[in-house]
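forwarding from the other thread:

> can someone predict this with adenosine-5'-triphosphate?

sure thing
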Amino acid sequence: MGGFHSLYTHGFFRTGACVPRMGVGDPQFNLARTLELARQAHDQHVGLVIFPELGLSGYAIDDLLLQQPLLDAVGQAISELTEASEDLFPVLVVGAPLRWQGRLYNCAVVIHRGEILGVVPKSYLPNYREFYEARHFTSGLGIADAMIAIAGQEAPFGTDLLFRSAGSAPVTFHVEICEDVWTAAPPSSYAALAGAEILVNLSASNITIGKAETRRLLCGGQSARTIAAYVYSAAGPGESTTDLAWDGHAAVFEYGELLAESARFPTDSVLLTADVDLDRLRQERLRVTTFGDSARAAADQVNAFQTVEFHLDAPDADVALERRIERFPYVPADPARLREDCYEAFSIQVQGLAQRMRAAGAAKLVIGVSGGLDSTHALLVCARVMDSLGKPRSDILAYTMPGFATSEGTKSNAWALMRALGATASELDIRPAARQMLADLGHPAGAGEAVYDVTFENVQAGLRTDYLFRLANHHNGLVVGTGDLSELGLGWCTYGVGDHMSHYNPNASVSKTLIQHLIRFVAHSGDVDADTAALLEAILAQEISPELVPADATGAIQSTEAKVGPYALQDFNLFYVTRYGFAPSKIAFMALHAWGDAARGRWPANIPERDHRAYTLAEIRKWLEVFLFRFFTISQFKRSAVPNGPKISSGGSLSPRGDWRAPSDGNAKVWLDELKRHTPEA
Ligand SMILES: Nc1ncnc2c1ncn2[C@@H]1O[C@H](COP(=O)(O)OP(=O)(O)OC[C@H]2O[C@@H]([n+]3cccc(C(=O)O)c3)[C@H](O)[C@@H]2O)[C@@H](O)[C@H]1O
Ligand SMILES: Nc1ncnc2c1ncn2[C@@H]1O[C@H](COP(=O)(O)OP(=O)(O)OP(=O)(O)O)[C@@H](O)[C@H]1O
Ligand SMILES: NC(=O)CC[C@H](N)C(=O)O
């Protein structure tokens, strides 16, 4: 099997859905097209590839289905296909009318490496409106523990089959046929509860206006409900147009998400592929424990399945991932989705803080404004909160509090911002108190020595927060937290007395990369004047720094990203560690795919061209190691004691009362070992 660079190494699985050019009632023609596509799928390392319903005979051939020569020719085509499959990697699932115990069934035949693994008859035969399947076929409902003679072999036959690979490409799949998924209780629902991860559907669904959307709803919804992948392929060009038409719709969904979809109304054969993330499905089924509850509720149906085992071994080649992986899991590149995300994130933040202000009977909001990203965004939220409560923005008491390392640039940005947003702005110099405290501590910096250690830093961060809390007492206000999700993930905040603490933190579950985007979004929204937009751009462009340590001899300022890593990568790591609990080597593989080439895929809007950069595997590995150590070893005690704040993204919040509970005395050993063992250094 391939190495680190192969998708099969990391729990991905390539699926294929074919729309072959069809010959009406012409099994040899259809066999030839099927074989062409199967060979293409082989060349593309597809593990499981499906073809349309009754694809070997044609679907809309009416009473020809009852013609002996036609059925014999279909049998011959299956024999030839089975023989040819010996040299092919993928499991093939083809549609054919088959005779069993003197009756005709609308079947899916599952073939791998010269063997018929099983045959699944269609359960639900539509016989309403334009459909007349019951005229020819018998329903497969209830057929179990049966065998069928086919292509010189004896194969399992029934609707009780699950197919499971015990090879180095492990997967469990189930097969249903068109109408089966149109029903209130599709067979695949029970199959998923019995362990099927990929649900395939061989379909011949004639097209009428608007029907493609119905299919998306049904297949996408089925994949979401069953926490599975749903692979769908419908008949296309060449299918009989006597009274109907065919748009050749192929699509692959994963847990409610459309992974790939064919262009409809093709004029020739199509192979659609999609890389399904089986790990994601497996991890999600562990989390969503009600999935197991519904398996218990449907125990009779679930326990009735039998498993057909086969061996699919991952290709030796390094099969490169083709799936689109967002660079920023918290900031989707699709403009429409991003707009919706920004609207929701901002509205959640505003609603959270407004409700707390009302409930606490607070007259004012108190906030420290540094001129950095987090406090800028929190201040934008405060302004909107006041608007929504019908209070004047002057009820926001905003303080800029210069310390030993505050630059003129950030301070003037802070002033400009407080003014632009209409807050009551003040300046409070923390240096005299900080000097006093350092002296009281016996710290050398108290006597003017250039000792810039963590105590020196935290005295400043702590004093700022202390002032804000006492100002809140003094003015009947709430201290608004600014620290973001990414900082919380990395433990990049001062515990208890510092920026870790507030009365309510609307930023707590907004990642740094999303905060950057939200500010960008406001700057480009037209909701603020040109000066404010320029100010926001200036804030976005500056180096991220806590400004707690003065610039060094070269003038270089304290850089957060030089210490904890680029937020772009750390947000990627944070998302996949907390949302799915993936292995670090898989996260590194995915990060390389997302970030390895600046030209690949779309970037979210408004990110300046100069920031379109790439990361090497060595960089990705290095910063992932930093992330794992910081996240698992040194920062959980901070997350175990965070103020309230609303959960914002499906990526999760890190509140111990919300979406992330972990021991405060754990360590990163397991994760670091996994990373080192399975990720090359470059
Ligand atoms: N598991 C555990 N349970 C309970 N306590 C634990 C602990 N592990 C360490 N501790 C204790 O915690 C203390 C260390 O934590 P803490 O006092 O927070 O200090 P620490 O995390 O060492 O330092 C704070 C860091 O955050 C950075 N910062 C501060 C402010 C703002 C920003 C920003 O950019 O937003 C960044 C700052 O530059 C500094 O590097 C030590 O006294 C240690 O003994
Ligand atoms: N000079 C300052 N004046 C007022 N408040 C400050 C100052 N420096 C820090 N703070 C407060 O402490 C918080 C944490 O500081 P930090 O520098 O990490 O955040 P930031 O500057 O808002 O954003 P970023 O972390 O993105 O630079 C700020 O959000 C702000 O509330
Ligand atoms: N072949 C089928 O089972 C088609 C039935 C399905 N209800 C459709 O309209 O597409």
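DSSP finds 21 helices and 19 strands in the chain. thats all i got for now
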